[in-house]
Design a protein that fits this description.
Elements: H1 2-28, E1 29-33, E2 53-56, E3 59-62, E4 67-70, E5 72-76, E6 83-85, E7 88-91, E8 96-99, E9 102-104, E10 127-130, E11 133-137, E12 151-152, E13 167-168, H2 180-185, H3 195-205, H4 212-215, E14 223-224, H5 278-313, H6 319-368
Parallel strand pairs: 5-14, 7-13, 11-12
Antiparallel strand pairs: 1-8, 2-5, 3-4, 6-9, 7-8, 10-11
Helix pairs in contact: 1-6, 5-6
Length: about 375
């Protein structure tokens, strides 16, 4: 009986591990968007709730159709001696790629983004660990010294300006590269966002008011004293904010973030052809239907391959291996979604350009035709 209970407990633990890793991957790995996020809003840092909490700055995340604000918040460090490296967006050549935040013994590279409150672009000037206790730098943190006595004052010179740019590289992005120390920090042992942080992100994603298209870069809740405490007295609204610098007209149809093909929203459909030539429109419609059918088949094939890998590894309670598998699935799914998106854009451009080309040829033929005498 005891052995049966142990096996059952192991399977439950493995299932919980898989769900937590999958949830983390949905918002953390491989997400690419064709246009950059809004500027970082201006807000006041809520007061630190208790000793051991470390500030995690707010950032823009992507829900598949729109950027949404994840409020900054105080989070209890998962281990003594661990710091938080913030999430950041960086240009990847074809789009802006999301890099997840994580816990580790050193602060790694976070794109040179000036998040404020100790995260001014490189490293962290908001506090330090000493003999198992976290000491807060009061010059950059809002701490009640009557309740928290582990404090010090060190004036920090902000050498990174007051830029509110929220992404690295690309048009208008921050020009920063990882230092040797930050590159070394990437190889440390890391812990993904804790459960409270994931619930915090989920709550922000489900709130329509947090979307950039709704708040225009000025979220109603910019920061909280604890994860998910959006309605508590300790939550603060943004004082300033600015929306998108440039959003393509077809950005709402961009395939969203997903770990597996089944998590993707349905492929967007192109508008019905309306060139004025019924025969030509029917041909265009047939081309589109063939494309949709082929894309659906490719989704199903990738989903089947990933499910087979899940069956292979579901019995292994190995966190590192599960993370590797989910990263691979995330990348595969995003590559497929990006490829399908590019195909539809290319087809739409071709269908729009072809009538114009035919009209141009017709006009040239008309212009070159011999003219009779007046």
């Amino acid at each position: 009986m005891r052995s049966i209970f142990s096996i059952r407990s192991l399977l439950v633990a493995a299932a919980m591990l898989f769900l937590s890793v999958a949830s983390f991957a949905q918002v953390a790995i491989g997400v690419s968007v064709s246009f950059g996020p809004p500027e970082l809003p201006v807000y006041e840092q809520p007061i630190c709730p208790a000793e051991g909490y470390i500030w995690t700055p707010g950032y823009w995340a992507w829900d598949g159709y729109d950027y949404y604000w994840v409020p900054g918040t105080w989070v209890l460090a998962p281990e003594v001696g661990f710091f938080w490296t913030p999430a950041w967006w960086g240009w990847g050549g074809r789009g802006y790629i999301f890099h997840a935040g994580y816990w580790g013994p050193r602060v790694g590279f976070y794109g040179g983004i000036n998040y404020g409150y100790g995260y001014f672009g490189h490293g962290y000037d908001g506090g330090r660990w000493d003999r198992g206790h976290f000491y807060y730098n009061r010059s950059v943190n809002n701490v009640n010294i009557t309740e928290i006595h582990n404090v010090y004052n060190t004036t920090i010179v902000n050498n990174y300006g007051n830029s509110r740019v929220s992404y690295n590289g690309g048009r208008g992005g921050v020009e920063a590269r990882a230092s040797a120390q930050e590159q070394a920090a990437m190889h440390d042992r890391h812990i993904p966002p804790v459960t409270a942080q994931m619930q915090h992100v989920d709550a922000a994603r489900s709130n329509p008011e947090f979307r950039a298209s709704s708040n225009h870069g000025r979220p109603p809740v910019a920061a909280t004293s604890r994860p998910g405490a959006f309605t508590d007295r300790g939550s603060v609204a943004a004082k300033e904010g600015r929306g998108y610098n440039s959003r393509p007209p077809n950005a709402s149809n961009y395939p969203g973030s997903a770990v597996h093909p089944k998590d993707l929203p349905p492929n967007s459909r192109l508008s019905n052809p309306n060139s004025g030539d019924q025969k030509q429109d029917r041909r265009y419609q047939q081309q589109q239907e063939r494309l949709y059918s082929r894309q659906d088949q490719e989704r199903q094939q990738l989903q089947q391959r990933q499910e087979q890998e899940h069956q292979q590894y579901k019995q292994q309670a190995n966190q590192e291996r599960m993370q590797q598998v989910e990263r691979q699935h995330q990348q595969q799914t995003q590559q497929l979604a990006q490829h399908h998106y590019d195909q539809q854009v290319e087809m739409q451009q071709h269908q729009h350009q072809e009538p114009q080309h035919q009209q141009s040829q017709h006009q040239q033929s008309h212009d070159s035709a011999p003219r009779g005498k007046p």
